Amino acid sequence: MAEYPWPWQYNFPPFFTLQPHEETRQQQLEVWADLFLKYLKDKNRFSLSIGDQNSPLFHNESLKRRLSPEFVLTILGELERTGHANPLDKRRQEWQVYWFTLEDYGNMVYDWVQVTGQTNTICTLYEIASNEENSHLGFYGVDEAVLLSALRLLEEKGRCELIEMDGSHGVKFF
Amino acid sequence: MNRFAYVEARLSPNESFVSRDNKVKIYDGDQKTDFEDGEVVLTTHRLFWGRPGEIARAAVTLCLPLSYVISVSEETTASNFFGRKTRIIMHLHPPASDKGPGPLDTSRATHIKLSGKNGLSVEFHSALRETLNARVWEILLTSETIINGVASSPTSEPANDRLARIQKRTGIGGIERHLQAKAKATDENIALAFQDLSVLMAMAKDMVEVSKTISSKIREQKGEISDDETVRFKSYLMSLGIDDPVTRDNFTSNSAYFSSLARQICEMLLDPIEEQGGMMSLADVYCRVNRARGLELLSPEDLLHACEQLSGPIRLRSFPSGARVLQLDSHDDDLIAVDTLEKVEAAESLAVEELAKQLGISLLLAKERLLVAERLGKVCRDESVEGLRFYPNLLLGRD
């Protein structure tokens, strides 16, 4: 696999230390949050574990710099604030991270359902996320757990209903 | 038990106290006796037993010459209160025929035991063993025979010497004596040292007088010494000290004292602080001020109070880190930050100690400079196992 195109900051040692200067820290966190999303999108991953210290995302080997777990938590907190991440456990060690916000995903799926005229039919999550015809759409290849969270949000708004069968999920749009 | 004799509890010449213990009872062989709850005193020659207070009064008490002792052993028995206690068993020679009257005339036992409620103390026990090993009483006997045999012969002196040496080293008493001698020697040394110090103080006052007269003479006789020399000599005197230091005695109120002290500090430090780049840590200030004052030293508190009063061209400044410095009013954080950034940019990245070295300032000040620059967003930090380094703040500047 080709080397990920890291931003220049990735090779700048202070980037790995949380800066005390307010403005600098904001800027730094923004870059990090952006890098997190882009990196995970590139790798098509939707979860992140703070304990995974050897991920190149946390650890620049050639620079010998690491993100401290606290720093990672700060970045994820920032992502959570903008609606791009969600802790999976109480200790906030495992995180779900997604390129679009859950609301965006929900809207995209709903728009697609409207366009393709699938209201009042039942689809499986697999059909939505892995349909080859949808490869141009934002939610193509989305993690099923993330999709499920997005659909739950949609369900709360009364736009669909989730049905559970044999451990897998189906969904009916209204 | 029949080896004991009634003797007055007084030390004979050459005999010295070794150790004591309380609440001791004597066994005749394995039999308990009436001699309970007494005090035992061990000397280099004998073992005394008396009712409480008797030995202190030098009353007649039980006495056992140590020459009777063949060997000492111990037995351990259960104690009433504390787990176990130790009794001392002393095995004895048969009584001498010329022994004085004692508590028992005949006894079949060839040993006695010393015991207490909680046994005998470890100190007493080890002292007893040491004393028996030293066998001081034998030396006394031999030296006496020598004196008796060869009257006023010089050979007795080494024997006495040896005796004295052995006495000195024997038992707890010996150790105590040794400590006492040591303490006395230390005392003398200290007294001597302070004598020197007071002489020095007196001399120093004279020295200051001398330098003052010289400086006044220079003022009067300007013609005789060349201007150049005068200036040089004056500068030496200046660096030696302040002519007339502000002291507390001259002021009735604290605030007046501090404000005039502050004025003097300001006058004195203006040039050095400028030389140092506009900042001086309080520690440096303290050293410089007191060096200039010579004899009238300032306490750190007084100096701090005076610095707090400073309002002129120099001010006291506390950094968020808690470090305190005197700083020129003209000294500007923005200026420092820009200056520091230049240094950091030139070196690509700088650690605190590197900047301190470059500028020839203390680590504390170098760190404050970098922190000032950081607070203004000019530099950013890199904390790693290699330590703290500062880089130009590309995080904000670029893009």
From TrEMBL, chain A:
Task: Name one matching Pfam family.
Answer: ESCRT-II
Entries under Gene3D superfamilies matching the protein: Winged helix' DNA-binding domain. Chain C. Domain 1, Winged helix-like DNA-binding domain superfamily/Winged helix DNA-binding domain
* A single cellular component GO annotation: ESCRT II complex
Membrane-spanning residues where?
none
User: Which GO MF term does the entry hold, naming one?
Assistant: protein homodimerization activity
Keyword Cytoplasm listed: yes
Name recorded for this polypeptide:
Vacuolar protein-sorting-associated protein 25
Its gene name is Dere\GG23371
Automatic annotation (TrEMBL), chain B:
Q: Which SUPFAM superfamilies match?
A: PH domain-like, Winged helix' DNA-binding domain
Q: What Gene3D superfamilies is this protein classified in?
A: 6.10.140.260, Pleckstrin-homology domain (PH domain)/Phosphotyrosine-binding domain (PTB), Winged helix-like DNA-binding domain superfamily/Winged helix DNA-binding domain
Its main subcellular localisation, reduced to a broad class, is cytoplasm
A Gene Ontology biological process annotation?
A: protein transport to vacuole involved in ubiquitin-dependent protein catabolic process via the multivesicular body sorting pathway
Single GO MF annotation: mRNA 3'-UTR binding
Q: Which residues form the GLUE N-terminal domain?
A: 1-144
Alphabetical keyword list: Cytoplasm, Endosome, Protein transport, Transport
The protein's assembly and partners: Component of the endosomal sorting complex required for transport II (ESCRT-II).
Q: What does this protein do?
A: Component of the ESCRT-II complex (endosomal sorting complex required for transport II), which is required for multivesicular body (MVB) formation and sorting of endosomal cargo proteins into MVBs.
Task: Identify this protein by name.
Answer: Vacuolar protein-sorting-associated protein 36
Q: Which organism is it from?
A: Drosophila erecta (Fruit fly)
